[in-house]
Amino acid sequence: MTKRPIYPGSIIIAIPKPFLITMETVLKSEVGSFLKRSHLKFNLQQAMTIFLIIESEKQEESVWWPYIKALPETFDTPAFWKPSDLFLFSKNVYKKIFAALNDLQTFYNEILLFLSSCKEIKITFNEFRWAWYCINSRSIYYDCDSSPYIADTNKNIALAPFLDLLNHSTTAEVEAAFNMNNNCFEIKTYNSFRKYDQVFISYGAHSNTHLLMEYGFILPDNPHDVYELDYDEIVKVAHNLNFQYIDRKKRIIEENNINRKLVCSKEGVSWSMHAVMKILAMDFTELKNWKFIFKDDPISLTNQKAVKKMGHILLKQELLELRSVFVKFPSKDKSRLTPHQNIALNLLKIEENILQQSIQLLQ
Ligand SMILES: C[S@@+](CC[C@H](N)C(=O)[O-])C[C@H]1O[C@@H](n2cnc3c(N)ncnc32)[C@H](O)[C@@H]1O
After folding, report:
1. Ligand 1, from 159, 170, 210, 215: best to mutate by most atoms within 8 Å of Cβ?
2. What is the CATH number of the domain that holds 285?
3. Are residues 159 and 237 in the same domain?
4. How far is ligand 1, taken at its centre, from the CA of residue 84, in Å?
5. Model pLDDT for residues 131-173, shown as the tens digit of each residue
């Protein structure tokens, strides 16, 4: 809550560098000295996880204790959900969550392997999961130089105590960057806030699935929300419609990376989803000129009709499958569902809405 009005262009927060937990902080700590002796190389989030756990165990003896003490004890990301509630998601969301849970277990196993050679530290999976999601839901983008002791993937993160108390809104417009002149990480807002308003920032243009998996919440009117489609499912529909030269078409799609962002939103199917369907529906002559997809004009009347038919079959199939999940909820009465079950139900309804609108737009 702001105690005074805030005008567009104002810096709402500035955290001096010594108060940031960066790769430098981690490498200067005990974890750093263990890492320097080890032949294993972690990503920064793994190293920071160990750092947070060690510092939290020190309690008042750690300079970071006032910060650690204020961190949430648990999270609402699916990694903390009852496993049986994970079946309340649509197929593709479930697949993403399942893959993320597998990655989490792999990152933990790597830490266990590392700790087997340094007997001083013991970390349980629950401690690891807590620290991992503290970092996941609270880290900022912070450019770090490469280090021989830390893997280069995902190295540009840092924790910014106090700054990480700000919540996300889809209407927030901000710029966040390190200011070399005053040595502070700053957030500038382009919104205005009245005295006593809650001040929001933006975590990025994230879909609800992303918000749920990384931060543990969803937003009802999220303009960045999408329903993700599976490339193999799209190809399967093309097969069933007896479209020809599928292998050649798949090669074109995959070699040119067109099978990315295969999603639909309230505005209909994405450009790449449309392009993939156009290619799959092409006849022999059209396929020779497949680059016409970049012109955004219809390929031909026949192609246009085939794309529409394919889109209908695919999206209706998705809708049918998604609706079959509703019966898995333990009650039809929302008040009898747990908060997690309510999140899953709301997400399903949002996805159902997106699919329905996309189907309408195919007409
Ligand atoms: C960087 S922290 C923000 C501070 C957090 N509210 C706290 O008290 O510690 C990110 C977390 O805040 C919560 N959060 C942020 N924006 C939210 C929103 N618009 N609706 C619901 N929860 C939100 C989520 O739990 C998310 O994981």
Report:
1. 215
2. 3.90.1420
3. no
4. 25
5. 999 999 999 999 999 999 999 888 899 999 999 999 999 999 9
